[in-house]
Amino acid sequence: MTAAVFFGCTFIAFGPAIALFLFTIARDPLRVIFLIAGAFFWLVSLLLSSLVWFITVQISNKESTSQQKGLLIFGVVLSVLLQETFRFGYYKLLKKANEGLLALSQEETMPISIRQLAYVSGLGFGFMSGAFSVVNILADSAGPGTIGIHGDSQHYFLSSAFMTMAIILLHMFWGVVFFEACEKKRWWSVGVVVISHLLVSCLTFQNPQYVGSLVPTYIIMFLMGMWAFSCAGGSLRNLKLCLTCKDKDFLLANHRPR
Question: What residues contact 214, with CB distance under 8 A and at least 6 apart?
Fold first, then answer.
């Protein structure tokens, strides 16, 4: 493998997320803090799910292939449920933190709205999830080795990069929809977020048939993106303003703080 593969896959996986961070978050210290806190919450959820999975593997029959596959599926489902549980816990924590910031500030409105917190925390979840998903794969892409030498797919690194990009963006969309659902107590929306997260995670079991995992994942990402856009107060009008560079920050600024 070459350096071009390494940097190309890195750019594909993290390019959109880094661009969003630089243009909408990096200039605001408060948003940066909440993004890092969101990444930390995701990391704690991974730690707990990994601990439970490790214990169950140790007490299981390691010679049973079916049992090990079952434990792998169990680990994925447990990880998703813990991630969404920690997302809800982070939502509750941010609500309390926002109330505290409002009490300390001299303004009548909250310094950062729930929609902004949903976007920032979702991107934090996505960054950390993407890092753990692709960091080892990127390390392997630097070589030595030749992908597909035994007849496997030649698109392993490229497919992994596109899947990581989708997961990062999905976490951002899930965060927006999840927080909006909690605010309005639409628990069915929360259920849709959890189910779609489970579905995307389980689609990775289709690999190395990458078409079977990437195509449905990107369809789900597109649908969740449209839903998140609507939840964030988006409309065709301000989408047109954004695409014509007349309103670059509409997702974070063009709504009333709550």
Answer: 159, 162, 163, 166
What does the CA dihedral 176, 177, 182, 186 come to, rounded to 10 degrees? 160
Residues 6+ apart with CB under 8 A from 80: 194, 197, 198, 201
Tell me the per-residue pLDDT of 158-191, one tens digit each, with 9 for 90 and over: 888 899 999 999 999 999 999 999 998 899 999 9
Structure letter (DSSP) for residue 83: H
List the one residue out of 42, 16, 14, 35 whose CA is nearest residue 121. 35
Q: CA 88, CA 227: separation in Å to the nearest integer?
A: 19
Both tokens of 231, joined, read: 């939840």
Sign of CA pseudo-dihedral 193, 194, 199, 200? positive
What is the reported pTM? 0.86
